[in-house]
Design brief:
The protein is of the alpha+beta class and 436 residues long. It is built from 12 helices and 20 strands. The protein has 2 domains: 36-78 and 200-266 and 366-431, FAD/NAD(P)-binding domain (3-Layer(bba) Sandwich), CATH 3.50.50.60; 136-196 and 268-362, 2-Layer Sandwich (D-Amino Acid Oxidase, Chain A, domain 2), CATH 3.30.9.10. The strands form 4 sheets. Strands 5, 6, 7, 11, 12, 13, 14, 15 and 16 form a 9-stranded mixed β-sheet that branches. The protein has a 6-stranded mixed β-sheet with strand order 9-2-1-10-20-19. A hairpin with a 3-residue loop joins strand 12 and strand 13. The radius of gyration is 25 Å and the shape is globular. The N and C termini lie far apart (82 Å). The structure holds flavin-adenine dinucleotide. Flavin-adenine dinucleotide (FAD) binds at residues 41-46, 68-71, 75-78, 80-85, 233-234, 250-254, 272, 274, 310-311, 358, 360, 393, 395-401. Residues 1-31 form the signal peptide. Keywords: Signal.
Length: 436
Amino acid sequence: MEGFCLAFQHVQHSTLSILFLLLLLQFDAIALQLNCRSVLGAGFAGLSVVWHLLKQSPKELQMRIDIYDEVGIGGGASGVSGGLLHPYSPKVKLLWEGAQCWKESMKLLRVAEEASVSKDCRTGESAEDMKAFVAHKRGILRPATDMKNMIKLNDNVKTCLPSCRVETLNDEEAQSLLPGVCLPFNTAFYMPEALNINSQHYLQALFQGCKNLVKESSTLESGHKQLSLHKRSVHRLSDFEGEYDAVIICLGAKVNMLPEISGRLPLRTCRGVIAHLELPDDMIGYPESGPSILSDAWISVQGPRSLKVGSTWEWKSINSLPNVSTDEATKALLELLPKASTIYPGIKDWVFTGARAGLRAMPPLTTLGSLPLLGCINDVIGRNHTCRYWLFGGLGSRGLLYHAWLGNLMAQAVLSCNEEVIPSELTSWKATEPKI
Ligand SMILES: Cc1cc2nc3c(=O)[nH]c(=O)nc-3n(C[C@H](O)[C@H](O)[C@H](O)COP(=O)(O)OP(=O)(O)OC[C@H]3O[C@@H](n4cnc5c(N)ncnc54)[C@H](O)[C@@H]3O)c2cc1C
């Protein structure tokens, strides 16, 4: 009898333990499920959201972030972009919330620079070299191209930011920065703090920064964070139903290809080609601190013997392939080189080495400019969903400027499940019917 009681107690004890274990597992599963986020797209928008989600989530929160991208880091427009970064319009007018956007971009750039320095694989170089791996701090020169344009530019520089100054230069001053530069109206506007970023290096380094945050979270006594990149195509949003509590859509110009979204966003697409040029060894290289140039065509300086010249604007194209055919490259060169040589005649000595292209997602023009589209889109895609779908798109031709601050706001909105933390200027597109 005693033996039976002991055996019974033993069974009871193990059953309780199993039940307790199951309960724990269930709690763990619920905790994980409650904090599963998926970010679609690994361009400027996607990686900025990931970094801010990891940075802002409470330490004790368990969180899993899955990134889905069919190509990998920087597979879309971000990876090919000219990398020019400043808070002004082509007429040097401060853009909507330009100060905030500039400040946050600088912060994220520092994160990437620090991560690139910390990368194990990049040893043997000085910290400064590794920072240049992400960004070139050589400023941008904007020449006045006609009289009307000069009056406008002169007016606009009065409201420039102290953190990204715009100086008015005469011909002599411009020549000392960039010998041989040609100013049609003897005046140029110089932004000494403006940058050009190596987009691919920046994105790789920012992703490294995200992985570093995850690593830090596992060494602290806090909720564990997980981050995975899945190189996979996304075909429909419904595939994510049930597994995630939030899906953040950062698919750039290809967002319209999802069946649930197609035709519901006020976005237009525009393909741009960029030509890559190099200088032969027997020629004197571009000056060490010579600025990039912003004019009818721009020149983004990658190094003393490497330039990018951009960009074409092919509206309504849906071709997002980065590869450029010989025909397309020839057409682009015929358009870009005459424009570039008006300001920098020395370009004739440079040799074409290849071209890349990307598809921009262009938002509608408002009285405040072309503002990206953000917000929770469950009401846009209809039906009842167990998960929240968020859109971070329409970065147009200024993704570098917008991605950091808006990624920060998007992360706040997702973590608090509250769209109202996003300024209404960025969500008001939902109130108007798209004119497709
Ligand atoms: C030629 C050109 C030059 C530019 N120059 C500048 C510049 O100098 N400065 C500047 O600020 N901006 C520039 N831009 C604009 C800038 O590149 C964009 O604003 C920015 O890249 C948009 O970022 P994104 O993350 O929204 O989209 P993307 O960078 O396009 O990222 C979307 C990601 O989603 C992935 N994806 C898409 N569809 C799917 C799918 N179905 N399944 C899985 N993954 C998918 C893609 O592979 C891609 O990695 C330029 C753009 C172009 C085209």
